[in-house]
Specification:
Shape: globular
Largest sheet: 6 strands, mixed
Structural class: alpha+beta
Helix content: 10-25%
Number of helices: 10
Distance between the termini: 34 Å
Strand order of the largest sheet: 7-15-16-3-17-18
Radius of gyration: 21 Å
Number of strands: 18
Length: 377
């Protein structure tokens, strides 16, 4: 587990009171729209961006767009600042550290990061692991999605000159040969991986990743995909006209290319690719994985999350009672998110609360009845 505790103050919807959130291997965040669930993923993305040495972070950008808009300063003339402290346990090392990241407005210092009582080697190890964090919140598999046309040769993105680049100017990059804009104030956005070890955060390299699967892993992928709908017997990644694509094989020899697959099928295939990885990234964040899926599959997805959390740390946001139902035997993995006076707060489900409510109800039902928080009312 990479992050054991996360404290955030003065950033996004985390106001002057801040949050102090213990993290487990599996963290499923529930709550109404606008409560701040996505901002938790933003904070993880910010840690990744900072540790990865992202140019958008270190070249003196204007951080006022990320700072809490309330009064976080202790004195009237003190500059506002945001602070993130992550209690980390680096793999292979016995000690734990508090990794500090502080952000200041453009009138002062822009960024400061440090690990108290740690040397440069520990910071380098942390940077390496943080740079491997993957956050999946930007999948788009509609009819015009580039992935439906297949994946061409990788295009290495180039950084534009920083000269005269204001903090609000988006950087233009490429993913699967398609140019896109990257908002400097969205730390979740990242460049594609050149080695295709893991699925990129737009899933643009899905064909390439699956093409590298071993035969056993591809069989497992097909078995899980068959639960989406009966009749799937395999997955192939043919290389045609300079592009590699994904093709679903059905009974009777029928083949369905990616261009004809439903949004939900491609989404579930991407989720399976991430969650069945035997050597996953150290931390994975997923926003609303239930989108486009049948409730029966959402329940299966909940089981997959539990299994995957044995290999990596997961932070997942959801609006699905069915997904929460699948966690009835793991109630403390659920974290309720809400807002008080405009500030986000989190509360993890405790064993005691679960024992009182779960005698005659599933965890999703307990959520509906208001027993664990995270409701609109």
């Amino acid at each position: 587990m990479l992050i054991e505790r996360l404290r955030v103050q003065g950033l996004l919807s985390f106001g002057p009171d801040g949050i102090d959130l213990p993290l487990e291997s599996l963290n499923v965040v529930i709550g109404p729209n606008g409560s701040g669930k996505s901002n938790l993923l933003q904070v993880l993305g910010l840690l990744r961006t900072a540790a990865g040495g992202d140019r958008a972070l270190v070249n003196g950008r204007d951080w006022e767009k990320l700072l809490w808009q309330g009064p976080p300063q202790m004195k009237d003339d003190a500059p506002a600042k945001a602070r993130v402290v992550a209690n980390v346990k680096l793999p292979g090392l016995e000690r734990k550290w508090d990794y500090h990241l502080e952000l200041f407005p453009s009138t002062g210092e822009h960024k400061k990061e440090y690990i108290p009582m740690a040397g440069t080697s520990e910071l380098a190890i942390l940077h390496r692991h943080y740079s491997d964090i993957r956050l999946y919140n930007n999948w788009a598999f509609g009819s015009l999605a580039s992935i439906r046309d297949g994946q061409g040769p990788p295009v290495k993105p180039s950084w534009p000159s920083d000269t005269g680049n204001s903090g609000s100017t988006p950087i233009v990059g490429q993913d699967n040969g398609v140019r896109y804009k990257r908002d400097l104030y969205n730390p979740i956005a990242s460049w594609p991986d050149e080695d295709d070890k893991w699925l990129t955060e737009t899933a643009g390299n899905l064909p390439s990743v699956i093409s590298r699967f071993s035969s056993d892993r591809r069989i497992t992928l097909g078995k899980y995909l068959n639960r989406l709908y009966d009749g799937i017997v395999g997955i192939t990644t043919p290389f045609v006209d300079g592009k590699v694509s994904v093709v679903i094989e059905e009974n009777g020899g029928r083949e369905i290319p990616a261009e004809r697959l439903s949004d939900g099928t491609l989404r579930y295939l991407s989720l399976l690719t991430v969650l069945l990885d035997p050597d996953p990234p150290p931390l994975i964040g997923i926003e609303e994985p239930e989108l486009g899926l049948h409730p029966d599959i959402v329940f299966e997805l909940g089981k997959l999350l539990v299994e995957a959390s044995e290999r990596t740390q997961l932070v997942v946001t959801t609006h699905s009672h069915t997904l929460v139902d699948a966690l009835t035997d793991h109630p403390t993995s659920v974290v309720a998110c809400d807002k008080h006076e405009g500030q986000t707060w989190f509360k993890r489900v405790t064993t005691g609360v679960a024992e009182v409510w779960l005698n005659d109800n599933s965890l999703g039902q307990v959520w509906s009845m208001g027993g664990i928080g995270g409701n609109r009312w």
